[in-house]
Amino acid sequence: MQRTSIVDLMSSGNQTDTFRVGFFLLPNFSMMAFASAIEPLRSANRLTEQKLFDWVIASENEKYTMASNGVEVAATTQIEDLISCRLIFICGGIDIQNHTTKSVISALRMIDRHGVLIGAICTGTYVLAKAGLLDDRRCTIHWENREGLEEEFPNLDVTEELFEIDDDRITCSGGTAALDMMLHLIAQAHGHGLATSISEQFIHDRIRDSHDRQRMELRSRLGVSHPKLLTVVAEMEKNLEEPMPQTEIARRANLSTRQLERLFRKYLGTTPTRYYLNLRIARARHLLRQTSMSILSVALACGFVSASHFSKCYRETYGRTPRDERVMQ
């Protein structure tokens, strides 16, 4: 079947017919990301006084789907009816592995065979990867889930973009990035002026490009601006699987180990060793929650030489073992 790319579909100029978008909601989906994607469509219709878009909502149980914030959203159609859409989005959120069922994968493959363009929002990218629908395409996912996705699907081309368009696939990192993605699509179909008007309606002062960063700059996240401290933390974040000795970290920042200790205590209230360990433990927590990797594999991926040492450090930090962390999910 010859497929139309998303870029060609949105910029074809043949936009006289109402453009139908489908949203496939999985349990614990992100309400922020879903609302950021659907609201621009409503606003486009309101501002132009035309039905440029309509939308349908489907779920696996064909009734209600509960978002991660506890709000339930009613389905308006069955999964099978999503083949009437020109573009659908898989909307994911928390605990995506447990909601990626065989029936969901089967439904997505069926929709794909009918030539519907398929996208994903937030952890919906994981579902497309599991279904084999991201092979040979670039994709993106929420920054918190990127490492887990790469560990489970090492052959995927995962980027850090806010959203990624590659041929007949579009993936979005989630949150308010879904608003920028939809404004980008609306601008392609109906012009930048309409997209700008919608952005102003939502008091969104700038339509971000796909290349904008997902995370805040390091200085904003830490609340400090000391250049050498920022250099050190950046190096730590880049070297979690093979932790660097403190002497090497200090050398790269042109500091003595004593100066390094003073910087961390003054600005972050901890030692470099403790801070580095917390980064590795936090990464391990993401992997435990978001992948099916063995505990030993998680330990090695986060720079621990043994599962027992990893378990001891994890319990000291979070009050439970890595195995208990998995059971709680």
Explain this structure.
By secondary structure, the protein is of the alpha/beta class. It has two domains: 196 residues, Rossmann fold; 111 residues, Homeodomain-like (Arc Repressor Mutant, subunit A), CATH 1.10.10. The chain is built from 16 helices and ten strands. The strands form three sheets. The protein has a six-stranded mixed sheet, with helices on both faces. A two-stranded antiparallel ribbon has the order 3-4. Helix 6 packs across helix 13 and helix 7 packs antiparallel against helix 8.
Supply the key terms.
Arc Repressor Mutant, subunit A; Rossmann fold; alpha/beta; 329 residues; globular; single chain; 2 domains
Number of domains: 2
CATH class of the largest domain: Alpha Beta
How many helices? The count is 16
First-to-last CA distance: 40 Å
Multimer state = single chain
Return the average pLDDT rounded to an integer: 92
The percentage of residues in β strands lies in 5-15%
What does the largest sheet look like?
A: 6 strands, mixed
Strand line-up in the sheet with most strands: 2-1-5-6-10-9
Under the CATH scheme, the architecture of the largest domain is 3-Layer(aba) Sandwich
CATH superfamily of the largest domain: Class I glutamine amidotransferase (GATase) domain
Count every beta strand, where a strand is a DSSP E run of 2 or more residues: 10
Which structural category fits the helices and strands? alpha/beta
Radius of gyration: 22 Å
Q: Give the overall form.
A: globular
